């Protein structure tokens, strides 16, 4: 059975800096795969290649059998890949509801005539989109914040809105770039629960970039470890955590055999 996402021989350079070197990675439908590594290892560069922000110099990225290596971000999103950013990229002066509603623009198919008259197809699509946004608000437990301006919300809630906005694109593959960075322990526990629910209840495949190895060990089915742009290990979380190359590059030599 073909993989939902398959990356082969990916190379990405910025001048003389090699960000990714011969990276091979795959994700199967419904899988939650983590990508870990030290700062500067190439994790975000990998995500940027998948969703079209960067164009690699060599290699291929295939999603559900289609080559997406050189597609622009909006085309990648339209195919069913969404992303939640490490740094919150919301419209901070708009409400939670407005941010989520804007994310539905990819699913509007009616033309100008229908929009001007607002009848038939336009009215039906708008109603369907509102229902979907309400579903996501409820799913991510954001109902109490629906009319609040995003910039006034606590950081942990903003990160949840960021993820909710990505879900409004109805992705089949969700890219999460350090969704728990800067969160308190309680906020991390909440976010971990939402990630599990997205994966299990909504059946969404996930690539998770995360520094907290306790989270990685608990949530992921497989782990890839990047160091200096190369995949130095991959496999089940506990197996990867014991790999001497990972211990040296990521955990520190004194913690061999123990997830940090």
Helix/strand layout:
Blueprint: E1 5-14, E2 17-27, E3 32-36, H1 43-50, E4 58-63, E5 66-67, H2 73-79, E6 81-84, H3 96-102, H4 112-117, H5 121-139, H6 155-167, E7 173-177, H7 185-200, E8 205-209, H8 213-219, E9 222-227, E10 230-235, H9 237-241, H10 244-251
Helix pairs in contact: 3-6
General description of the model:
This protein has two domains: 1-80 and 171-260, Rossmann fold (3-Layer(aba) Sandwich), CATH 3.40.50; 92-170, no CATH class. Helices cover 37% and strands 23% of the residues. It is built from ten helices and ten strands. It has helices at 43-50, 73-79, 96-102, 112-117, 121-139, 155-167, 185-200, 213-219, 237-241, 244-251, and strands spanning 5-14, 17-27, 32-36, 58-63, 66-67, 81-84, 173-177, 205-209, 222-227, 230-235. The strands form two sheets. It has a six-stranded mixed beta sheet with strand order 6-7-8-3-9-10, sandwiched between helices. Helix 3 (96-102) runs parallel beside helix 6 (155-167). The model is unreliable at 110-118 and 253-260 (pLDDT under 50).
CATH topology of the largest domain: Rossmann fold
Distance between the termini: 35 Å
Order of helices and strands: EEEHEEHEHHHHEHEHEEHH
Query: How many discrete structural domains?
Result: 2
Rounded mean pLDDT is 86
Largest sheet: 6 strands, mixed
Which superfamily, in CATH terms, is the homologous superfamily of the largest domain? P-loop containing nucleotide triphosphate hydrolases
Q: Give me the Rg, rounded.
A: 19 Å
Q: How does the helix and strand content classify structurally? A: alpha/beta
Strand order of the largest sheet: 6-7-8-3-9-10
């Amino acid at each position: 059975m073909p993989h939902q996402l398959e990356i082969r021989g990916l190379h990405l350079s910025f001048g003389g800096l090699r960000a990714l070197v011969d990276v091979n990675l795959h994700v199967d439908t419904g899988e939650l795969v983590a990508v870990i590594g030290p700062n500067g290892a190439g994790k975000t560069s990998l995500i940027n290649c998948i969703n079209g922000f960067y164009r690699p110099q060599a290699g291929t990225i295939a999603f559900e059998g289609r080559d997406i290596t050189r597609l622009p971000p909006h085309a990648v999103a339209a195919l069913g890949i969404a992303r939640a950013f490490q740094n919150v990229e919301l419209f901070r002066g708009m409400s939670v509801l407005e941010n989520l509603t804007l994310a539905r623009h990819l699913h509007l198919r009616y033309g100008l005539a229908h929009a001007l008259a607002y009848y038939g197809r336009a009215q039906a699509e708008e109603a369907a989109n509102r229902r979907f946004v309400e579903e996501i608000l409820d799913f991510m437990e954001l109902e109490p914040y629906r009319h609040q301006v995003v910039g006034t919300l606590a950081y942990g809630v903003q990160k949840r809105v960021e993820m909710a906005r990505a879900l409004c694109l109805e992705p089949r593959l969700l890219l999460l770039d350090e969704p728990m960075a800067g969160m308190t322990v309680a906020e991390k526990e909440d976010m971990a629960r939402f990630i599990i629910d997205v994966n299990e209840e909504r059946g969404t495949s996930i690539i998770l970039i995360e520094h907290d190895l306790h989270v990685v060990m608990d949530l992921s089915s497989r782990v890839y470890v990047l160091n200096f742009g190369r995949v130095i290990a991959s496999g089940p979380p506990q197996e990867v955590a014991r790999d001497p190359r990972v211990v040296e590059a990521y955990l520190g030599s004194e913690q061999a055999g123990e997830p940090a």
